[in-house]
Amino acid sequence: MNAERASTPHRGVTVTDVDLSGADLPGMSPGLYGVLAVPAGEGPWPAVVMVFEAFGMTDVMRRQVDRMAAAGFLVLMPDLFVDGGVRHCIRATFAAITSGEGRAWVDVEAARAYLAAREDCTGKIGILGFCMGGAFALVAASGRGFDAASVNYGPPPRDLAKVLTDPCPIVASYGARDLTQQGAAAKLAAELSRQGVPHNVKQYAKAGHSFLNDAPTGPAAIRPLTAVILGAGPNPEAAADAWQRIDAFFGEHLA
């Protein structure tokens, strides 16, 4: 596992692991749990299901949960790799994104249902994802019960118009240095404009993949390659702007 700095929750934010197996949905992962962050003060709050990047439940991803809670959202990140880890689950999880069905989708729904049932949730729930999770968030924008979606360097599907059917409002962020997603931001913005969907899509010229992370992720051995192909790595300036856009967009559409 890559070296990551230790997680320290924001003042007043409570971060805990919670059992989600009580949802008992057909096809969900055995022993499903998630990282829950509750904001400081008294609720209720709008909620966010967060879907992690392809490297799984890292400290970087846990800090993203904490960061969103500090912004005033009740946040839950389910461990989609709980039943086998990254190597065992990643292929099936990416397949679920493409097909729109499978265990990962059941697990995401279990997280959404958990938040909706809490007394400290307003009933308004968004979904936010990074990389693989960004692709989840984009597909989940249509017909999955979410009120807003934040897509962060999640590749749009080939048949975008077919996948995005009456989607919820979408805020999306991409990095121009990511060679695998050239044109993704423009394609997504054009389709959302065509459908008249409220959106805020932006590409950052000096950022690449995973620019919202506050530390490098993934095995150290592959980082030189991902840096060349994906432009991967933190970009604090772009991240600050993107987070401001996400917080404001969710603040408006989950109000």
Short note summarizing the structure:
The chain is an alpha/beta fold and 255 residues long. Helices cover 36% and strands 20% of the residues.
Could you characterize what this model shows?
Helix content is 36%, strand content 20%. The chain contains 8 helices and 8 strands; from the N terminus they run βββαβααβαβαβαβαα. The chain has helices at residues 59-70, 85-99, 103-117, 132-140, 160-163, 184-195, 223-229, 236-253; strands at 14-19, 33-38, 45-51, 74-78, 121-130, 148-152, 170-175, 199-204. Strand 5 (121-130), helix 4 and strand 6 (148-152) form a beta-alpha-beta unit. With 255 residues, it is of the alpha/beta class. The chain is globular. It has an 8-stranded mixed β-sheet with strand order 1-2-4-3-5-6-7-8, with helices on both faces. The longest helix has 18 residues, at 236-253. The protein has one domain (14-253): Rossmann fold.
Question: Which labels suit this protein?
Answer:
8 strands, 8-stranded mixed beta sheet, globular, single chain
Number of strands: 8
- Helix count equals 8
Helix content: 25-40%
Number of domain units: 1
Radius of gyration: 17 Å
Order of helices and strands: EEEHEHHEHEHEHEHH
Main structural class: alpha/beta
CATH architecture name = 3-Layer(aba) Sandwich
What is the residue-averaged pLDDT? Answer: 92
CATH topology: Rossmann fold
